[in-house]
Every structure is written in structure tokens, then in C-alpha cells.
Amino acid sequence: MPGSLEPLDLGVHIPYHFRCPISLELMRDPVTVCTGQTYDRASIEAWVSTGNSTCPVTRATLTDFTLIPNHTLRRLIQEWCVANRAFGVERIPTPKQPADPALVRSLLNQASSGSAPAHLRLSSIRRLRQLARDSDKNRSLIASHNVRQILLPIVFNNGSDELKNESLALLVMFPLGESECASLASDSVKIGYLSRMLTHNSFDVRVNSAALIEIVVAGTHSPELRAEVSSVDEIYDGVVDLLRSPISHPRALKIGIKALFALCLVKNTRQKAVDAGTPAVLVDRLADFEKCDAERALATVELLCRIPAGCEAFAGHALTVPMLVKIILKISDRATEYAAGALLSLCSESERCQREAVAAGVLTQLLLLVQSDCTERAKRKAQMLLKLLRDSWPQDSIGNNSDDFACSQVVVVPF
């Protein structure tokens, strides 16, 4: 239920004391400050984070920034929500409380202690992982205690597989610094370990290994180090295999395409992606990606179409051209740009692809694209493709559209 909902929208009045004095919205996690006033946690935290040190209602100085959960008020709000279900009001969930900094320090100390029993270290890592999943605030708190420096040695040093795997699952929830990424990328033993984990019998371990590989490649600024990681054959087989996962595993698709895109940014190793069967998998799974992941997938398609083997592999898939034509102007401006770029590469190399594109209706799509508010790069690619396909257009299409769009007047602007 939107917190700003007005009474007339549902025919029900939201009690005044259920609204946050700052946002005037229904409170979802009411907390009380030292002045005795109650606010929604997100609103008062935002108020304090911008430098305010007074109570918004009383204007008294906040001598203590501790936020005490108002469980009684929260239960009353939940009961009110349930009582008004007939008006479309949804019950607010019981919020998870922020992690205690002392607890986080204790768990990290226990996890990093080589003298602590293995089962206690494992329990600490699992508890930290649960806290990190609960909220962004918890992740920020855990990150502030040098969690990466604690977890990296556990993941790559000798120890029980279970402890290493749980530590890996927690580690990938935090971004690594550039120096950490460079250190991992330059260590062939550690990269070899991650590539082997891509064939682990645990599905989660495979996904987390791919996630760390993507973090390392994307976070390494050195082209030489990126190329070293991208040159490992086993990585491509493992990452592409993740993209074959059932749609019921959306995280595998997301991590798989992020890792594959990062790897394919290295020009000299794109052939390895093609050899691993990437073109067929990308085309088959293109419709399963969410928006951002679809953009990465299409960007990867365009990158691979820039090498002869990749262009040939995509051209050999019956669905490639129709799918790319269909995507134009459907997902986003970036997706349109990448799809047009891939089509330009394919049609430049294959007359059969030109005929397939025309049969799939690319003419109408490109003419609409040129007239749209899409990116200039997308328009330039569309103009080049229109010129390339001019001889393949059906005569009746040219006649029907030339007056409206001046097809013969297309100007090609070089990249």
C-alpha cells in the first residue's frame, strides 16, 4: 500500500498517529528517539544522515541517536491494516531489526580465529550471511569491519570445503577494491581454483565462483590482468553452463551474463566464448533475461559478432536475426542500439541474413528507429543498415514508405 495514499482513494482514513511526522506516510518500521517522538526508521535515518541533529517535531537536540523500535505501535498498525483489508490495505511486514555492531564484531572475530572450532567459525559465517541478506544497512555495517580482508584468506587457504564455500557466498555480497581485484587476477593459482569451482557439484558454489570472477574482471583496470583471467578456457565453459540453467534460477542467469559480458570485453579472448557455445545459448535465453541483463546479453552478442567465428555462429542460428529485429525499440534504448549493431555486423557478412532481416520486418523497425528519440549511435547504426539493405527491400515496401521517410535520402554517419 502506498504510504501517501489519501483517504478518498480507498474510503478509509489512516489514523494520524500511524503516519510518520516527517514523510506523512504510513509507518512501516516505527522507532522512538530520545525526545519520545516516534518516526518511521527510514525517514528519521535520512533526516539524521543529512546533518540534522534535532528532533523534527520538538526541535530539541538529539543527545542520543539510538533508535528504539516501537513494537506496540507497529503491532497496532499491523492490526489496523488487517482490519481494513476489505479496502485493499495490505498488512505491513514485521521489519527485521538492524544488526548490533557488537554482534558483528564478535562474529567476525570468531570467523577469523584459526584456533576456534570449525563448527563455530562456520556458524559465524552463516550468521553474518543472514544478516547481510536482511538489509543494505547490515551489509554496510559488516563491510565497515574489513570483512573482505577476513574472508579472502578463508576462501583461498587450506580449510574445510564447507567453510570455504560459505565464506565465498558471503564474500561475493561485497564489492572488492581495485587492489584486491588486481591481486586476485595476478594469482594464477587462485584464478585456477575459481575456474575449477565452476564445475562444483553444488549449484550455489558454481554461481558464487562465477560472481567472484566477474567482480575480479570488472574491477581490474589493467588490460593485461583482465586478459590473463579471460584466457582461462575452463571459465567460459563454466559460465556458459550457468546460462543453460532453468529459468527457475534467475540468479544464475544474472551472474552468468554479467560474468560473460565482462570476459567478452577482452577482444583477444572472444574466440573462447564462441568455442564454448555462447552464441546458441544467448539466442535461446534472450527472452528470459530481465531488462538490465537483456542489455548485457545484447551487448555481448554485438561484441561476438565483431569476430568472424562469432558472426558465423550467430548467422547459423535460425532465431538470431528475427529475435534481433523484434527487440528493436522494445526493451530500451541501449538494447535497441546493441541489436542494431549486431544486425549490422551480421548483414554486412551475409546476404542470407539480409534476406532474413527484411522478411522479419526490419525495414519498418529501422525507419521508426531513425525517427525516434533513441541514441545517436543507434540511429547511425540504423542508417548504415538501411543503406546496406536497400537492394534487398521489396519494391512495394520502398514505394509505400519512401514518401514518409525519404528512404533514399538516408545519410550514413561514420562511427
UniProtKB/TrEMBL annotation:
Pfam families: ARM_PUB (PF25598), U-box (PF04564). InterPro entries: ARM-like, ARM-type_fold, ARM_PUB, PUB22/23/24-like, RING-Ubox_PUB, Ubox_domain, Znf_RING/FYVE/PHD. GO terms for molecular function: ubiquitin protein ligase activity. SUPFAM superfamilies: ARM repeat (SSF48371), RING/U-box (SSF57850). Residues 13-87 form the U-box domain. One of its GO terms (biological process) is defense response. Its EC number is 2.3.2.27. It comes from the Eukaryota. Pathway: Protein modification; protein ubiquitination. CDD domains: RING-Ubox_PUB. Keywords: Transferase, Ubl conjugation pathway. It catalyses: S-ubiquitinyl-[E2 ubiquitin-conjugating enzyme]-L-cysteine + [acceptor protein]-L-lysine = [E2 ubiquitin-conjugating enzyme]-L-cysteine + N(6)-ubiquitinyl-[acceptor protein]-L-lysine. The keyword Transferase applies. Functions as an E3 ubiquitin ligase. This is U-box domain-containing protein.
